[in-house]
Amino acid sequence: MQIDLKKVFDFKPQKKNIYISAGIFIALFVMLAVYITTVYFKDSKELLSNSYNKQEANLLKKTLRGDILSADGTVLAYSKLNADGSQTRVYPYGGIFCHAVGYNAFGKNGIEAQSNYYLINTGDSVLDRAQKSGEGGLADGYTVVSTLNSKLQLMADEALGDREGAVIVTDVKTGKILALVSHPSFDPNKLEENWDYIAENDSSPLLNRVTQGFYPPGSVFKIFTAYEYYREGMDYETYGFDCNGYFNADGYRISCFHGGSHGHVDFETSFAKSCNSSFANIGTSLNNEEFKKGLSNLLFGTELPAGFYNQGISVSSYDISSDFKKLQTSIGQGDTSVSPYHINLVTMAIADGGELMVPYLVDSIEDSRGLTIKKYHPESYGELLTDDESAFLKELMRSVVTKGTGSQLSSDIYEAAGKTGSAEYNNRGDSHGWFTGFAPLDDPEIAITVIVEKGGTGSESAVPIAKKLFDLYFEEIR
Amino acid sequence: MRFILPQISNYILAFLMICYAALALFDFAVKNGTGKSVIAGCQNMCNIFIALTGFFHLYYVSGKPVYLIICLGVVMALLMMLGFTKLIYRDSNRLLLNNMSMLFTVGILIISRISTGKVLRQFVVFLISLMFSMAIPLIFIKINFLRKLKWIYAGAGLAMIASVYIAGEVIHGSRINISVFGLTFQPSEAVKILFIFFLAGMLWDNYKFKNIVFTAVVSALFVVILVISRDLGSALIFYIVFMFVVYVSSGNYLYLVGLLGLGAGFSVVAYKLFSHVRVRFMIWKDPWSDIDNKGYQIAQSLFKITGGGLFGMGLGNGSPKDIPYVETDFIFSAITEELGIIFAIGLLLVSLSSFIEMMRLASKIVDPFYRLIVYGIALSLTFQTFLTVGGGTKFIPLTGVTYPLVSYGGTSMLVSMVMYYIVQAVYIKLRKETVDNALKPFIFHRKPDRDRNNANRSKKGI
After folding, report:
1. Which distant-in-sequence residues (6+ apart) come within 8 Å of A255 by Cβ?
2. B342: which chain A residues are within 8 Å (Cβ-Cβ)?
3. A contact residues 36-55, partner B, Cβ 8 Å cutoff
4. Cβ contact, residue pair A29, B348, below 8 Å
5. What is the pLDDT of residue B157?
6. B189 CB contacts (<8 Å, ≥6 apart)?
7. A25 interfaces chain B, CB cutoff of 8 Å
8. A317 Rama sector, left if φ>0, alpha if ψ -120 to 50, beta otherwise
9. Residue A460 lies in a domain
10. What is the CATH number of the domain that holds A394?
11. Residues of A in contact with B4 (CB under 8 A)
12. CA distance A412 to A405
């Protein structure tokens, strides 16, 4: 059959078609206008922090970069105007806050990077700006108020002293980071002059050891093993083990720390006294697939949540592919690596009844009159553990303080709970000292995680630092 | 005060721009002649004040008296354009005239801020284009055989773009320019007009399938030459104009759907075949991974779009030169940075108002030849605006075309102005003939009015 093409295509021109095509183009323009406005409102902050964006230099001709304050009102960073119109960034505390506050050079870091948009924009009214300009000054950038507590931060820095390591203190109910210290630090005031030295130093001062550090967890990992034992429904109440300093299985041997023996131990005592042999024994009874599931519940192998600017947070890993590796893993040795940040997240979740609040560093943005223009609110990451699991682990961690390796933390003012660790990093038995814990037991407020590199046992090196921080918090700050 | 004045001038500029754009859109709702005259008068005020505020601001912040001289020149040129056109052609369309003047004002303001050297050139080009364009309505009124010259348009057009392909200068991989006696010229810009005339000449009285296919083959020649010359923006404009003109002349939506599909198919083939098409596409998808090199322009453009805020950083406070070729392809980004999002959206609305007015005229014209001319010009100008703004904001891939009447560039200015004046010419010619009752039954849908009174004429809606 032949199609009459004339009939198919021979239509009279119509006004209607002109209207339709006009409609199409009007719609395109409307979409374009909406798109431009959305890009402006949605992406401008992100685009402004791009290092290729030269907008910042323009803004700083009119605006003095804003201050960064601690939660208790201490100035952590401010700018001063030089005679030639340039600005110098000053960090009154030198390197003490360097990893949290960051720096304003070489691509920026920390709060300086995260809140850059606010720091270089101003909330001053036209009149204020005119007045300041008349006095020869610039408009003031927004003030960024961090969650950091200057006293805790100073104490943590002092307590860690010359040793390399990391300390993080968080508010378990909100996720606010109260202190974040990583040693060695660097002086952000002299970053530009010393850049080559700082960037190429073997002990990597630029590295934020809290989030980017990668350590064997040692006995701190027993929290995870105990959690898994409970999760698999094992009978922990009747558990018993006779420790004579080592545990043999299939020709492998796991020894207790420095060969000491613990005698007969139940589950709680194994945890409190950190008995390796007993925990190796516990480890053998765990189901491999379930173990993996349990560890991923507690954020192993996952990207860790963070409500602050970071340059990549270490993803924790483990290996239980063979029986021996599984034994080593259950006492936190072998091929297990964690960051102090990860351990702190898990501690926060245990303390807070299983719910993890996402840690954050910036509390609010204020204009130069002290009016809050933006407030950052706590965000929940979700439930890492059930109520029962959390209660069980809290109990165990309390026993560490009452009758175990953390007895130095006994105090009349607060009931602390936690876990120590001594993570061997070479074959000669040298170890990093760990502590992670929270207080008070009934209604936990803060979680503290400490690692002291090459510090020996956790009780010798990390626990005293935690004690100073707990004491300070409960005696002065709270 | 030293601080307050430049600060406030930005709010004034945004306010005037929004007033102007609102009036331009409100104009469509007003039917009586007096109302339209009042609106047009208010628009002229906004326009002149934008020029005065802008140039005084530039003088104030820079202290260079040259801006006052430019200001004087621009205001005189605007008054000349508005006045002379109205004087010579009583029947000219004031909305289109005002929009032209507004677009030129914004363009010259931002160009003089980017480079005081370029502004003189642009100004001279504007005056020459204006003198040339002013004669167009006169020619249109006298001549009636334009529709018969379709093969001349096609031949001349093809010859021009082919000569660029063979003899043109290669600039950044594209053959777009040709130099004659030391003057650089972009033939593809001018060929747009010839192409629209060719389409109208072919399709005004014959929308049979065979004729359309025939037209399509010739049009394809245009597009293919442009694509291999790497003038992707023009190729796209030609294709879109062809597609819509066929759609309207035939009255059959199947053409629109079919050609849209075909166009998509061609794009895929072009993507596979030509590396420069692929590069454009990749940059659009992700300019950030190659920000040092190919993505640099668009990344800088995005910084400008988002960096100025709602009211802009203020003329002279931004750094438009961070974007290479800002004065031609990225003028919209420079405007957004220094004059703000609100002002920029207002500018888009002005372009849109011109489009709607041209479409409105097209829908009123009964003579299919002139209808297609006006329709084609409306599409070409508007689609080009869409390409340059959309490209600079990463809404669509970058094609590197100019903003009609705003961007720096001789050929672009001349061709855009000629296009506007052709629409004016059609408008004037048809109104004149209607009123003279010469082609009474054919030109307008409505019965013509013998009364030459301005107010009554405008009631007819054209």
Report:
1. A245, A246, A247, A276, A277
2. none
3. 36-37, 39-40, 43-44, 47-48, 50, 52-55
4. yes
5. 92
6. B234, B411, B412, B414, B415
7. yes
8. beta
9. yes
10. 3.40.710.10
11. 126, 130
12. 18
Please list every residue in chain B whose beta carbon sits closer than 8 Å to the beta carbon of residue A57: 319
pLDDT (0 to 100) of residue A130: 79
Domain presence at residue A347 = yes
Pairing of strands A63-64, A139-140: parallel
* A355-357 and A246-249 strand pairing: unpaired
Q: Which chain B residues have a beta carbon less than 8 Å from that of A126? A: 4, 7-8
Under the banding of pLDDT at 50, 70 and 90, the label for residue A48 is confident
Search chain A and give the residue with CA nearest B322: A54
Q: What is the pTM of this model?
A: 0.75
Cα A53 from Cα A27, distance rounded (Å): 32
Tens digit of each residue's pLDDT (9 = 90 or more) over A284-340: 889 999 999 999 999 999 999 999 998 889 899 999 888 888 888 998 888 899 999
Min Cα separation B430/chain A (Å): 18
Tell me the average confidence (pLDDT) per consecutive run of 10 residues in chain B, 462 residues long. Answer: 72 95 93 90 96 93 91 94 89 93 96 90 93 90 86 91 79 65 75 94 85 92 89 92 92 89 92 87 88 86 89 87 88 94 96 95 86 95 96 92 93 95 90 58 45 45 44
Query: Looking at CA atoms only, how far is residue B165 from chain A in angstroms?
Result: 31
- Give the 3-state DSSP-derived string for chain A, with helices as H, strands as E and coil as C: CCCCHHHHHCCCCCHHHHHHHHHHHHHHHHHHHHHHHHHHHHHHHHHHCCCCCCHHHHHCCCEECCCEECCCCCEEEEEEECCCCCEEEECCCCCCCHHHHCCCCCCCCHHHHHCHHHHHCECCCHHHHHHHHHCCCCEEECEEEECCCHHHHHHHHHHHCCCCEEEEEEECCCCEEEEEEEECCCCHHHHHHHHHHHHHCCCCCCCCHHHHCCECCHHHHHHHHHHHHHHCCCCCCCCEEEECCEEEECCEEEECHHHCCCEEEEHHHHHHCCCHHHHHHHHHCCCHHHHHHHHHHCCCCCCCCCECCCCCCCCCECCCCCHHHHHHHHCCCCCCEECHHHHHHHHHHHHCCCEEECCECEEEEECCCCCEEEECCCCEEEECCCHHHHHHHHHHHHHHHHHCCCHHHCCCCCCCEEEEEEEECCCCCCEEEEEEEEECCCCCCEEEEEEECCCCCHHHHHHHHHHHHHHHHHHHHC
Predicted local distance difference test score (pLDDT) of residue A23: 95
Instruction: Give A475: exposed, middle or buried? Use CB within 10 Å, 0-12, 13-18, 19+.
Output: exposed
To test the contact with chain B by mutation, choose from A18, A35, A132 the residue with the greatest count of B C-beta atoms within 10 A, namely: A18
What's the total number of domains in chain A?
1
Chain A residue numbers touching B344 (CB-CB < 8 A): 36
Residues 242-271, chain B, touching A (beta carbon < 8 A) = 244, 247-255
* Structure tokens, B60: 């104030």
DSSP 3-state assignment of B208?
Answer: coil
Indicate whether A104 belongs to any domain: no
What ipTM was reported for this prediction? 0.90
Range(s) of the domain holding residue A177: 153-185+206-360+381-477
**Chain A CB contacts of B393 below 8 Å:** 32, 35-36, 39
B421 touches B125 (CB < 8 A): no
Contact A37 B345 (CB under 8 A): yes
- Say if the Cβ atoms of A18 and B375 lie within 8 Å: yes
Across the interface, do B341 and A40 touch by the CB < 8 Å criterion?
yes
CA distance B302 to chain A (A): 8
Tell me the shortest Cα–Cα distance from B159 to chain A, in angstroms: 31
Q: How far is A13 from chain B (nearest CA, A)?
A: 4
Place of tokens 């091929």: A335
